[in-house]
Design a protein that fits this description.
Two copies of one chain form a homodimer.
Chain A: E1 5-9, H1 13-25, E2 29-33, H2 36-42, E3 50-54, H3 62-71, E4 78-82, H4 87-95, E5 100-103, H5 108-140, H6 144-153, H7 159-166, H8 170-184, H9 189-195
Parallel strand pairs in A: 1-2, 1-3, 3-4, 4-5
Helix pairs in contact in A: 6-8, 7-8
Chain A binds a DNA duplex (30 and 30 nucleotides) through helix 6 and helix 8.
DNA sequence: TTCCACACTGCGGATGACCACAATTGCTGC
DNA sequence: GCAGCAATTGTGGTCATCCGCAGTGTGGAA
């Protein structure tokens, strides 16, 4: 259903092939690109899995490619490979959010383990992001006034108080409140609060 | 009120003094130790600020010291300094949660900037941890039955339904519910949900 | 102009939440 | 045994919520 997938960006065909083969034996599919430019041209916001990125490549380097991905809002974990890395480079990459930073020659199993952790991490991210997308689409259905009322409801205020603050009648607040519950698919203010505040219990 | 504080662990007195002086000019206080052992012996769970940790020291290394801190549940950001670090060492430290990893010779201003970011980050952590501690102490005051009822209340169920599920009368549920609100310092189920689900809006 | 979404309001009733008053049972510790 | 806490239940009343029914007004789209 959700195939594990690694995006391999390296200008060395031997590395690409070796990695692809290695990952296949561990049940992870691969897509390969021979340059950062090529990968970036193909990249879409809905890409999932992880990125294995060689640092030293002709033209655009892996680090530059990473920066572009960050600008574009990429969410996939990025694993760097390098033969000539130094400490500041590794530190900088990790602090920017890279998933890992491995030096060549690397242990095959170690790399595959890292890739698997990365794709699994991405799968978890996708799952939580999906729930969030549902929320956003529901919130988008609310009228401005409904959103306003919803926020006040979420503070635990009585309808009477909300009515006073908005200078409208209690009945109107009730109507908005009811519509909010209906559109958000909940049956009480508590459920709404839980929905808008995930990760609990 | 909350003095910015750096814990400097380095067996080179010249470095300790230089760092202390540098930080003082930027309004950050320092405490210094000449070995990891000495620092660990003094360490208390309520230490705050940040740790500046040299990696190569006689006896216990900075990395070993870091591991001990992690076991003990240290929360302070740890900044590593090293003259002979390598990439795997830096990557390992950062993935374990180190705040930064700097190579000597380092730029004075850069280090001070990092330290300041670290102590500020710790101050934020302390603030949120404090709120969480308040929560925990309040939750600790609840009886088992009250906690049980609270969880059901937080699902948005009616008192009647909760009563059925626990095989008790509605009146009893009301009493527990009321005590929960009282002990948790809230006035409605929505406020309770907000309290137990921070970081929203 | 007609239709429609949105905001607004009132009335009255059913249901749920909350509370003061009052009380019983069981267990723990002095 | 008695004090104290936790859990339990009932009565009766007040306040809040929820909802159907009914209606007004406004601004934008067809």
């Amino acid at each position: 259903m959700n195939p594990l997938l690694a995006h391999i960006v390296d200008d060395d065909e031997a590395i690409r092939d070796a990695l692809t083969w290695l990952l296949r034996t561990r049940n992870v599919a691969s897509r390969t690109w021979s340059s950062a430019e090529e990968f970036l041209a193909a990249w879409q916001p809905d890409f999932h899995g992880c990125v294995v990125l060689d640092i030293r490549m002709r033209e655009m380097s892996g680090l530059e490619c990473f920066d572009v991905l960050l600008e574009r809002g990429n969410n996939m974990p990025v694993i760097f490979l390098t033969g000539h890395g130094d400490v500041p480079m590794a530190v900088g990459a990790l602090k920017k959010g890279a998933f890992d930073f491995l030096e060549k020659p690397f242990d095959d199993n170690a790399l595959v383990d890292v890739v698997i952790r990365a794709v699994e991490s991405d799968a978890r991210r996708m799952a939580s992001q999906e729930a969030q997308a549902t929320m956003s689409s529901r919130l988008a259905q609310l009228t401005p006034r409904e959103i306003e009322v919803m926020h006040l409801v979420l503070t635990g205020k009585f309808n009477k108080v909300i009515a006073d603050e908005l200078n409208i009648s209690m009945r109107t607040v009730e109507v908005h409140r009811s519509r909010v519950f209906e559109k958000m698919g909940v049956r009480s203010a508590v459920e709404l609060a839980q929905l808008l505040a995930p990760g609990r219990d």
